[in-house]
Design goal:
The chain contains 13 helices and no strands. By secondary structure, it is an all-alpha fold. The two termini are 37 Å apart. The relative contact order is 0.15.
Length: 285
């Protein structure tokens, strides 16, 4: 949502300043220039992508427009879920959660947090490593190494659409120059026309450079930055799971283990110690 607000501010300031300075918006209205620049940038974007990368970009762009998927309450629910799972392990043994991690959608523990059940990446991450803990076939340091590998893969995968969109934004000023040069060529081939006709042609050529720079830095440029922020929030949730499960595997009590997870969350969205303690008590009740 803030992305749209930012776009509105940019366009209002740029075009409003132009009008206040005595300009006429009609002088900037050249749909063909816009089509050339945006179409060329999109064509280069497609040419440098793979089908999987295009699909990832299509999924990632809405993330930039929507609000955060990880407000404080989601992190709080995540820590409470982990506490419930670890507490059951402490009381009934590791084998007691096997049915919960095999069928999380049917688990009474997971069902207590319906908002998390829709986050398939997070649920799968939790269940995969709890299965390994149940099997008892991996030492804590081996578990940590495997988690690090998965998180690194997730980081690389999430950066594919970010890198592609960043390059697309960076290329648009250059395509704007291409459109401007083509406009100059057209003008130079029309020097036989009177000055009052050449002026608008030169103006149209300069609009190409203007559109390329504006779209590159103010419209396309913020999108990968916003996507990266959303991806960081998701990564922090996975890191909180990692820290909690590793602390539990090392022998920490559930309350201490979830505290390890709480500490890796960004401060702006991190539940306080009191909030987590109160939420756990309420869940017990």
């Amino acid at each position: 949502m803030l992305l749209i607000v930012g776009w509105v501010i940019v366009l209002a300031v740029v075009f409003g300043g132009f009008v206040v300075s005595g300009g006429h918006l009609a002088a900037l209205m050249h749909p063909v220039k816009l089509l050339m620049i945006v179409g060329a940038a999109f064509g280069a974007f497609v040419a440098s992508s793979s089908p999987a990368a295009l699909k990832a970009a299509a999924k990632a762009v809405p993330l930039a427009i929507k609000g955060s998927k990880y407000p404080r309450q989601v992190y709080l629910d995540l820590l409470c879920l982990l506490y419930d799972l670890l507490n059951k392990i402490r009381k009934d043994g590791l084998i007691s959660i096997e049915e919960h991690v095999e069928q999380p959608a049917e688990s009474s523990i997971f069902q207590a947090y319906p908002g998390l059940l829709t986050n398939h990446l997070l649920v799968e991450f939790i269940c995969d490593y709890l299965r390994m803990m149940v099997s008892g076939s991996m030492a804590p340091h081996e578990l940590e190494s495997l988690m690090d590998q998965e998180l690194e893969t997730h980081h690389q995968e999430s950066h594919v659409p970010i890198d592609l969109l960043t390059k697309m934004g960076d290329s648009m000023p250059a395509f704007g120059i291409v459109a401007a040069v083509m406009g100059v060529v057209l003008t130079m081939s029309s020097l036989h026309l009177p000055p009052q006709e050449l002026g608008p042609m030169i103006g149209a050529a300069l609009v190409g450079a203007f559109v390329g720079i504006l779209f590159g830095y103010a419209i396309i440029g913020p999108i990968p930055v916003a996507i990266q922020q959303r991806q960081l929030e998701e990564t922090k949730a996975l890191e909180a799971v990692k820290a909690t499960l590793l602390a539990s595997a090392a022998g920490s009590m559930p309350a201490v283990a979830v505290e390890h997870g709480r500490k890796v969350i960004f401060h702006a969205a991190r539940p306080s110690f009191g909030e987590l303690e109160e939420a756990v008590r309420a869940q017990r009740g």
